[in-house]
């Protein structure tokens, strides 16, 4: 058993480094590949109740500081997705199904139609009408969706939160009240980019969400605030691209970290981060639990 | 960013390019020449942003040109661009063909001839012998005949027999001894490529295939283009893939559409 093994949000993981939702999560084969590369768990692309082609291109704007995306929740619907989850499972690690819907009933019926090791509720995508953050910015909606899903499934339920709000802690508390086993923070920050040659917004959807190194300090702050206020575990996401970033997230209170945009560099990021984490702990003769929330104890 | 990257540099931002010339190649294929070169290698591609409409992948048919087959909304819009009009280009992206040896064979069909012609011209400039086998529906669809004739031996097949050998491109294989070539390069409609591959499995270690999947992000994160069963991210690890990796993949069997659902690899 490596020094990185432990429980994260109700799942026993070999290590706390996971693939984030919507990143190389459309096919079972790419989920399995993340597992082979060393991920402790993988989260699928968010799936809904009917097939969606997503927004027209451009769907991403590459920047030096990260990425703006407006994929538009493309997915083949949960009915076609069980097969991909099952293929993903052959990687030997937990597969977390990310799901989205427009109301508690839709979320609950998708969750009960899928078999996965855990569910992550996408209440935070910033660029899809009627879904994601359009629900997830209201604490009452977060609570009722969480409650509806919890009532229908026996596996852990994580709630992915949006940072596009005045007070993310309020949303985290709502998820906790709804019975969530963990919260995941953060999804992307609302953003846009304009082409100065033509004046056109670059994204096909005009607006999108910012991810990558640019949002890491925002994510660290959100994780810190949530960890300070909640009793349930917090899983950190946002700009983690090396083991140093992962340690920072864990010191802010994260039980696990998710990697998204950094996968641009290839699947090797998992190995780099996991090795870096192990070596850091070994050098200092520390355990993961010694790091978790360290920043909160340093006052 | 880490030097230990598995992906070629993909941080290409959109640049503004102006169309200098538009050449009608066949009734539904046009070549667009740009006022700037993105310095591509043959086999690489760009994402062409037709402002207000869509962004689509296009291979290079030369250092500063693309060759567009009109199949839907975005390709029709692109084909209707007049000289002087501008568009956004993100590239060059993906890997490229790699020249190996001094006697190569190009096999292609339809608009897949575009990157092969670019490759053949680069090879010729290095004194590499180039032979081409190209297949089309009919004589009216034949693309880049003159450019390829300049490079070396050229065999043409047409489905309707209106030019060259009657039949699919594979009908032309009989005239060739694949063992003679140092490397073989393949690009065209998937059923055609699968037909060729399944008849030349013993050579799969020296066949470089440029394949087509549904690209969205083109930076290797969204998962739209991933190829079963290895999960190859075709947008950054491809579009050129060695044939032996394709033989036990989804290639020739199915492909995913924009939603990620599996569909036919025809069309
Ligand atoms: C690496 C690569 C290089 C390519 N090079 C060329 C080229 O040199 N010349 C050329 O004419 N075409 C090329 N294509 C194909 C071209 O991108 C599609 O024909 C084009 O995107 C169709 O868009 P549309 O709106 O006109 O058609 P649609 O009506 O949207 O679709 C028509 C067909 O094209 C496919 N398609 C649509 N959008 C995409 C997309 N974003 N990615 C991949 N397939 C898509 C659809 O699945 C469908 O089969 C290439 C594709 C790839 C992946
Ligand atoms: C291309 C892309 C697609 C994404 N798709 C989803 C999605 O389907 N569901 C979701 O909850 N989050 C999605 N996200 C958000 C990520 O999971 C993650 O929360 C965010 O990108 C911040 O992490 P990062 O900086 O490591 O990328 C997506 C992000 C990107 C860049
Ligand atoms: S197109 Fe997004 S990963 Fe290849």
Care to describe what's here?
With 299 residues, chain A is an alpha/beta fold. Helix content of chain A is 34%, strand content 18%. Chain A has one domain: TIM Barrel (Alpha-Beta Barrel), CATH 3.20.20. In chain A, the strands form 3 sheets. Chain A has an 8-stranded parallel barrel with strand order 3-4-7-8-9-10-13-14, surrounded by 8 helices. In chain A, helix 1 packs parallel to helix 2 and helix 8 crosses helix 9. By secondary structure, chain B is an alpha/beta fold. In chain B, 16% of the residues lie in helices and 32% in strands. In chain B, the strands form 4 sheets. Chain B has a 7-stranded mixed beta sheet with strand order 10-9-8-7-11-12-15, sandwiched between helices. Chain B has a 6-stranded antiparallel beta sheet with strand order 4-3-6-1-2-5, with helices on one face. Chain B has a two-stranded antiparallel ribbon with strand order 13-14. Chains A and B meet through helix 1, strand 5 and helix 9 of A and strand 4, strand 6 and strand 13 of B. The complex binds flavin-adenine dinucleotide (FAD), flavin mononucleotide and FE2/S2 (inorganic) cluster.
Short note summarizing the structure:
The complex is a heterodimer of chains A (299) and B (267). With 299 residues, chain A is an alpha/beta fold.
Name the ligand types: flavin-adenine dinucleotide, flavin mononucleotide, FE2/S2 (inorganic) cluster
CATH topology of chain A: TIM Barrel
Roughly how much helix do the residues of chain A carry, as a percent range? 25-40%
Biggest chain-to-chain interface with counts: A-B, 51 and 47 residues
The number of helical segments of chain B is 6
Average pLDDT, all residues of chain B: 94
H/E element sequence of chain A: EEEHEEEHEHEHHEHEEEHEHEHHH
CATH architecture of chain A: Alpha-Beta Barrel
Largest beta sheet of chain A: what is the strand line-up? 3-4-7-8-9-10-13-14
Low-confidence stretches of chain A: none
Distance between the termini of chain B: 39 Å
